[in-house]
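Hey, sorry for the delay on this. The queue was backed up all week. Below are the sequences that define the complex (chains, strands and the ligand SMILES where applicable).
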Amino acid sequence: MKYIKDHIMFIFPMLAILFGIESFIVFDRMSKSYEQELRADYSMLVLTSKPMELSRFKKLDGSISSVDIMEKRSIVEEMAKGMSGISAEDIMQSLPYFYTVHLGKYLDAKAIEKIRGKLIASEDIKSVETFDQSHNSSYNLFLFIKIVLWVFVGFMTLSSLFLVIKQMEIWQFSHKERMQVMEIFGASTMLRSGILFKRAIIDAVMATILTSALFAFLRFVWVERSNIEILTKNKKLLFEYQDIAILGSIAMLIVIVAVTIVVVGNREGKL
Amino acid sequence: MANIISASHLTLGYSNNDVDIIKNANFKIKKGDFVFITGPSGSGKSTLLRSFYGQLRPTSGNLLVGAQDMSKISKKKLQELRTHFGIIFQDYKLINEWSVAKNVVLPLIIAGYNVDMQETQAKRLLKHVKLSEHADRLPLELSGGEQQRIGVARALAKNPTLILADEPTGNLDEYSSNVIWDLMENANEQLDATVVVVTHRIPNIFSIPYRHLIIENKGIYEVH
Ligand SMILES: Nc1ncnc2c1ncn2[C@@H]1O[C@H](COP(=O)(O)OP(=O)(O)OP(=O)(O)O)[C@@H](O)[C@H]1O
Ligand SMILES: [Mg+2]
């Protein structure tokens, strides 16, 4: 009973840390994928007096990844039918060229304003429409959530780390007698702390498995049943196998740091 | 033969206490010696042994153990030195969450022996101290005298070059005491171990030559 309690007292804060970190990983993945979607959707409208190649746009700003020219002939021909004396060619001549410009990475309003400035400075470009309003607010919301999550996870990790170290000290205390006897018989620090390490590593592995299992369950079972469309669509983002490795390494790091703190802080008592 | 312990003007005391326990003591223990140390309760017998295995550093004077200066021995050297000792404590100092058998082979665990070797040696040692049937029990389930014998078996586990024993028969009846004295004699004679034993009574029947040091008024003197 005491044995189980000892382990739970260590696994619990460990779980809290790993849960927080995994949540952050998942959110980061979701925001990246959302960014990608936004980027695919986002474009600027550029009006030019001459036809322009992608390379010329790129020279003006490196973040431009592709341009599509808007096909206007069919519309113009349609218009010309209704007007006598004006040929479609004439209209085509007088109209500027319309380009939809896509960006290679996701940028905030300020950066987009900068690009706009660069484009408009070119004498062939007559006008640039950025549609930055809607674009910016959703991005800001994402950034905000990300920062809040960072603070939350950071705080949780820190306070859980204290619990982990506290539990280690309790272990250390109950092992003190054994450690002292072993020391008098010439055991190295490593050997004396071995049991502490072994225990902590077992618990770290347990916490990693539990956290991974929880998120795997969310992805493979819960989401299917939930019928929440945005989640079903993005269920892959909820858990990836590499997360086990990330969580495992973090758990090990925490264990090593915690055991080291306890062992170093508890040298042989001088008489 | 060379000295294994040599003290000159040795003074011992505890940092939480200003009084000296041992003051200005001079003595030598040669390799292969069998030495009894006696003295009244509280005279500093356990304190002296502690200085031999480096748990207490000299306040002043000089103490050499196995060519190491105990005033300035490094942690690493001390660790190495201790693996050659077999220490028996007045209060046993067993690891209570370990089985009797595991306690006995602690020096072998520290030396990195494999589990098979540990088991074979545990059997042999427990037979010597007549505790074979208790191998799998926990120390606290045994009597004081039995626990003391675990401590003795542990001290002998790795053929130590120096045995430091603090009242090894303090809790034993005459029969068990004689078992222990036989083991000590044997370790000294057959295995060339130097033996230093603190005791309040030197056994009547002792078949090998021995020396007797006595602690009196903070000094250490040889009894001839
Ligand atoms: N850890 C300690 N801190 C301070 N003083 C101590 C400590 N251990 C022992 N002493 C003191 O040192 C003196 C000698 O103690 P020690 O245990 O060496 O006596 P001893 O000769 O072994 O006695 P006994 O025959 O009763 O075992 C005593 O006065 C004791 O109070
Ligand atoms: Mg004593």
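The domain at 43-130 of chain A is CATH 3.30.70 (Alpha-Beta Plaits).

I'll add it to the shared folder too.

S.
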